[in-house]
Structure formats: C-alpha cells, structure tokens
User: Which sequence fits this backbone?
C-alpha cells in the first residue's frame, strides 16, 4: 500500500500576517510619556565671580538615615511618622516675618522663610533603599501639602495640587489644558520652592 504524503503547511502567509499585526500594533499603540515644566539652568559662573553668601545654619534641615535605618533630623532621633510634620514646621516657620502667606510659629531658631529653607537628605551606604525612599516621600508630601493649602486659597475651583501635576504630566492632556495648569504649578512652586538636596553617603 502506497504511503500518503503529509501535506506541508505554508508558513509564509502566517509570517506575513504576524508581520502585519506587529506593524498594526506599533502604529496604533499610544506610548505614555511625561512632560514637565521647562527649567532653565543658571549660566556657568566665571572663575572670578563672587561666591554666593553662605546659608545660615537655621535655614538648613539636615535629615540623616543611618545604616540601621534610624532617622536623625538636626541630630535628634525621629520616627518616620514625624518626618512630614517636622518638615512642615520648618518650611512654614517664617522666622523673619517676610512670608505673608505662611502660618508657622515664627521660631527664631528655625527657617527665615520658604525661599531660604533648605532640606538636605543623606543616607548611609548600608541604608535600605525602602527606608530611604520612604523618608524622601514624606519630605515631598510636606512640600505638596503646603502647595495644596495655597492652591485651595488662590484657586478654589481647581482640583488638588497633586491632581494638577498629574494632569499636566499626562500625555493625553490637551495642550490648551496644560497651558491653563502651568501658571498655577509655577506659582505654587514659587511660594514653596522645593529645595531638597540629596548629599552623597558619608564615607566611613
């Protein structure tokens, strides 16, 4: 009895279909991309330029996370839950009375005003990444909370400051809406500028 030949499957057409599907998905898929407010970097200073005045010690909040994931804020041991409130009190202090919108206690030993207030964050080389990020998030929350307070007072009909940032950075947001949101973001950032500096881990 003669053996039947097994029919071959023409894979050429399947490859063509797969290629067409790939092209289709590449063309139709929307890739999210973040946009941000353009920041102009300061020009390079000449070598003979006058150095900037030193920052007063009381205008700097030093946050340190040691190798045991313990927090030190201005050499005082703190818990993670205390970070945001400590930063709020520092940024909103208004020690010199020049901030008309601040509501702080005007502690003479704390920051003069939001524009001069600087927060430095330093970790040990053995600090866990989770703890470091958690501390950083609490500090950013402090800035956002103060900005939201002013947003609610100056732009009561708008969404929250965090929602404004998210909407502005979303690729799907129309340009007309972004043009509307950008001045609000810039104004809030001017009122409470985020001067959060991450310093290099301390060498042992």
Assistant:
């Amino acid at each position: 009895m003669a053996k039947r030949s097994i029919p071959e499957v023409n894979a050429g057409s399947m490859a063509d279909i797969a290629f067409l599907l790939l092209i289709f998905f590449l063309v139709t898929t929307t890739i999210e991309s973040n946009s941000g407010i353009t920041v102009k970097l300061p020009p390079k200073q000449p070598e003979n330029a006058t150095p900037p005045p030193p920052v007063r010690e009381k205008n700097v909040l030093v946050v340190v996370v040691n190798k045991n994931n313990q927090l030190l804020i201005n050499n005082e041991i703190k818990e993670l839950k205390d970070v945001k409130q400590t930063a709020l009190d520092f940024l909103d202090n208004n020690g010199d009375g020049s901030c008309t919108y601040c509501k702080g206690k005007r502690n003479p030993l704390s920051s003069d005003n939001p524009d001069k207030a600087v927060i430095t964050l330093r970790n040990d080389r053995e600090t866990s990444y989770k703890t470091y990020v958690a501390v950083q998030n609490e500090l950013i929350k402090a800035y956002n909370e103060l900005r939201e307070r002013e947003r609610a007072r100056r732009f009561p009909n708008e969404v929250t400051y965090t929602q404004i940032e998210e909407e502005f950075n979303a690729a799907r947001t129309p340009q007309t809406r972004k043009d509307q949101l950008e001045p609000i973001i810039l104004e809030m950032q001017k009122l409470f500028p985020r001067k959060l500096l991450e310093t290099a881990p301390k060498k042992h």
The chain has one domain: 57-199.
